[in-house]
Design goal:
This protein is of the alpha/beta class. Helix content is 25%, strand content 31%. Helix 5 runs parallel beside helix 6. The chain binds flavin-adenine dinucleotide.
Amino acid sequence: MKTELLIVGAGAAGIAAALSAWEAGCRDILLTDRRECTGGILPQCLHEGFGLAQYGAELTGPDYTDRITERLEHTGVRLVLGTEVLTIRGDKTALLSDRSGLTELHFERLILASGCRERTIGSLPVAGTRPAGIFTAGQVQEMMNLRGQNIGQEVLILGSGDLGLIMARQFVLTGKHVIAVVEKESRYGSMARNYHRCIVPYHIPILYRTTVAAIHGEGRISGVTLRHLDSGAEERLACDTLVTALGLIPERELVRGLGEPDWLFLAGNCHRVHDLVDSAVAEAEAIGTRVGGEFA
Ligand SMILES: Cc1cc2nc3c(=O)[nH]c(=O)nc-3n(C[C@H](O)[C@H](O)[C@H](O)COP(=O)(O)OP(=O)(O)OC[C@H]3O[C@@H](n4cnc5c(N)ncnc54)[C@H](O)[C@@H]3O)c2cc1C
């Protein structure tokens, strides 16, 4: 199998790159995603706040996804969902896996738009066991918003980035008790707008210069030891759920070791983490236009 342009990841960045490459004249584009739907992270983001620059409106993640996916339907971009790219080789071949098996694909240009992954509790020197009830914020967002699962009731959040604060508000709105957001720095890590929308109106406490030093519980988490970084004092706090929002890491394992060949381009969160979808899309459009123009 062959294609001129392979794009890995049909999130906002991958779709934007595909649309621009098509508009620039490339007529042989394969856009793949391992999920069964387009949009990447967006379908699980039920809050409003997407696409202000692009559409002049604050859309929810699913609405934003519908708009960009609809634009794809007016092009000849081949979209293949439920298809994971397993490996990329230096001879410009990719190994694709879907329900029918493995396929080797030769491409001329590759745009990697594989997003990012969350940093987990394992990245911190936290003592104790790892019982059930410890989740990343993205995990609970997917569990609650896409699968309708319950995650617990007494919630402590570690990390005050955008994802942590967005989920703090959702927990309150769904009847859970947010004990506190714990942050090692002396200021919240999110955009100001998320602090003012998600924390202030709900009076959610943020414990600054504090971290989780140990986890307690057998089977399910029953509490944590908090350490106040300036005084060194420690205290024990009961909770049945710990949600970590410790930051995002660009996901580019697929091209690790390949160096910087002239056929490889990175777009969106796998290049650098974008707080706003508009910024991820603008970057991807520029790359799509440049790469697509080579085939015009
Ligand atoms: C919780 C959260 C809230 C946000 N809130 C806002 C907001 O309010 N307003 C705003 O403007 N922006 C917001 N953002 C930022 C914005 O949503 C992102 O920057 C943008 O959506 C990233 O798009 P992406 O395409 O780079 O990555 P992703 O959306 O992560 O897409 C990557 C895709 O690549 C696929 N993929 C990865 N590896 C493979 C592989 N090997 N084979 C096949 N497919 C693969 C994945 O399945 C995924 O679908 C938020 C982000 C998060 C995480």
